[in-house]
User: What shape does this take?
Amino acid sequence: MSHVPTDYTENILDHNQHPRNWGTLTNPTIATEENNPLCGDKIHYDLKFKGEKLVEIGFSGKGCAISKGAGSILSEWAVGKTKKELEKLDTKDIYEMIGIELSPARAKCGMLGFAVLKKALTLIKIEKSTS
Amino acid sequence: MSHVTSHKFLRHDFPIFNRRINGHPLTYLDSASTSQKPKSVIDAIVNFYEHTNANIHRGIYPLSQEATQQYEETREAVRKFINARSTEEIIFTKNTSEGINLIAYTWGQKNIKKGDIVLVSALEHHSNLVPWQMLCKKTGAELQVIPLNDDFGLDLDAAEKLLTEKVKLLAITHASNITGAITSIEKLTKKAREVGAKILLDGAQSAPHMKIDVQKFDCDFFAFSSHKMLGPTGVGVLYGKKELLESMPPFLFGGDMIKEVHQYEASWNDLPWKFEAGTPNIADVIVFKKALEYLENIGMEKVLEHDQMLLAYAKQKLAELPEIETYSPKNPKECTGVLSFNVKGIHPHDTADIVSQEGVCMRSGHHCCEPLMKTLNLDATARMSFYVYNDKPDIDRAVEALKKVKKVFI
Assistant: This one.
């Protein structure tokens, strides 16, 4: 059966074309990035926390519509959340946020932003425990 | 039958084309990654396990002797296919990467010293780059790179200048998996000989598409993979000149590669078994012979002609779409059947995903060539690649599917 690719919803395409929080921050609490070695996609988040609360994100990088779109959607959701709320996120939440089911080949693209966020939260914890 | 040159018939030899994807015929344009297999190859795997399965070089009983004989028959078939002098020069590996690593670990560690130069090219696949990066780091040798010309091939004048007496190894791709450019090796090998450098050709993309003659090429090492040329995965070939192979220490140690083992020392088996430790991939090596027979029945000149015809046709069709940019030498006669391109403004991952819904299989990404991507100032490309079972309607279907890519993003 022929069908239009379901990965490319209007929402994803909109975020891909007009990514939210696009840019870098001058004094981020933490800056992290991850890449997808298969396709060369790279997502970078600058995160600024005030106390426990994430107050600002700078989102940059390069990638396909899925990784960029999902990275933008996640950044939009994350601003205003506490570290605890962010730590609770799992892949199911990401799928809900982006509103599509991704084929296994594209799942890595869709989860790239999430991987960056998780890495950032881990690094913050490590820094806290060693400082 | 494989000698039938009409591709309509030839396609029938490949059972996978009975498949449909989302109701569409399978348009397989990713043979540079791995090729499909003819029925003769698939049947031979079953036949071996049903009738001949036994370990080789060990058993006295007939089954083992038959398996050994068939395994060694493939070695002879490979020797003939690449026109090596002797079967002693044909080593079975698991793939091209393993063959190149074998050279880096054995010949390389023995012969490359601080101050030497290993010369590669800007077109290298990671498998003919990273082993040399590692060797140079370990030995203190220097890695130098032959640059590109402005037509997606190698700058041969620059290469000649780089070939100084410090160069101990010239390790270059024989055909690029991204631009498709076939390396004109004649001048290079001549100059390399003059300065005393050894020559390794990465034949992963050339052996499936063109006549290979290691004696004519005058290379010291030539590595390629079965799975890109109609054969099974898990089988590679490393050709090496006998006198070099003899002077090299073994790569892996264990069963089959020994002559005599005492409690505290051992001596090595003769060539080529010195380099084949442990039970090899018996069934797949044996079956690889069927793939070589299939290609030889067509004729390698015809294979190349066919792939180049499809490349020229694809370039012509893509040129009609202004949104597409291709990265391919001007003359298709200097290429194998590989065409990298991008739909402007759209990530190739998205391109490949969208066309895949129409049954079109093409690769997207950096194709294991990150440094080349940087040189070309690209993040990634989409790529279609052609082989014996492809025909013009495959390209027509791909082009129709590509027209839809832009629509999704408008």
In short: The mean pLDDT of chain B is 95.
